[in-house]
Amino acid sequence: MFELTFLGTAASAPLPKRGLSSVIVAHDEHRFMVDCGEGTQRQLLSSGLGFRRLEHILITHPHLDHILGLAGILSTLGQWETLDHMNIYGGQSALDRIEDLINRIVFRGTRPPIEINLIAIQPGFVFQGDDFDIVAFPVRHRGPDCFGFVFQEHSRRPFLNEKANALGVPQGPERRTLVKGLPITLADGRVIYPDDVLGELQPGTKLVITGDIGEIDGLERIARNAHALITEATYMESDAEIARQNGHITAAQAARLAQRAGVQQLILTHISGRYRERDLEAEARAIFPNTVIARDFDTFKIKALRDVPKPVE
Hints:
Elements: E1 2-8, E2 22-27, E3 30-34, H1 40-46, E4 56-58, H2 69-80, E5 85-90, H3 92-106, E6 115-120, E7 124-128, E8 132-138, E9 147-153, H4 161-167, H5 173-179, E10 184-185, E11 191-192, H6 194-197, E12 206-209, H7 219-223, E13 228-232, H8 240-245, H9 251-261, E14 266-269, H10 277-285, E15 291-293, E16 299-302
Parallel strand pairs: 3-4, 4-5, 5-6, 12-13, 13-14, 14-15
Antiparallel strand pairs: 1-2, 1-16, 2-3, 7-8, 8-9, 9-12, 10-11
Helix pairs in contact: 2-3, 9-10
């Protein structure tokens, strides 16, 4: 399961009730921030999440409304000394800007008090954990080195407690050993094999975050069967040409992507103040009913369900 907390959901400029782009993705003990717009540290504190375990920041692209908040966060962390290091992942264009922000402004003339690792990404694995991975994929926006991210849990076989109880498998390390795919020997000499207590292989939760995008072509394969798709809805279909010129998409385009990819839920963000929220949501829901527009501090729990909509071919 992935848990999302939106810290900023506005497009390009902050709104009275919407900060600039940022979302926290949590999985067990891991926390990742995706984008860090101006004012993110205040949003982080207001959300109650704080800076704990904030060691990984993923940047979708180098535009200022997605990176300026790094200055405040790094300055604060440097003063509080709450973390030993920070890993910032992004395309080379984003890292070049971030390096200037860090070395020429935040810590100009001094050595950063924490270790800051700027990690250039390419399409492919960004992070590999024990039970989930993060994969970067290229998107078209404005300028080079724009990426989205797939958070994908590993497939697993569920542990069948009723069968384990019937076989007399005790609670504790024995069950963990079976989950790892290894047999155990009970005190009475019986050997219990993983197949005795594990169900059929099930796919893990899949979460896709596109960042800002100017087109949806080619993204159906990336988002296919995702349990949640987070993408932008900067414009309405009536302004589709303006959206194209500015490297963004409409709420209707986002819904068509969700429909074609067969995702479970569509969550829209990067919302402009030029439209009423209910109109954006209505445009998307007319195509893909299970659509919501994220607001600052909204939290979503993304879980794998058995019945996922089939992609539209």
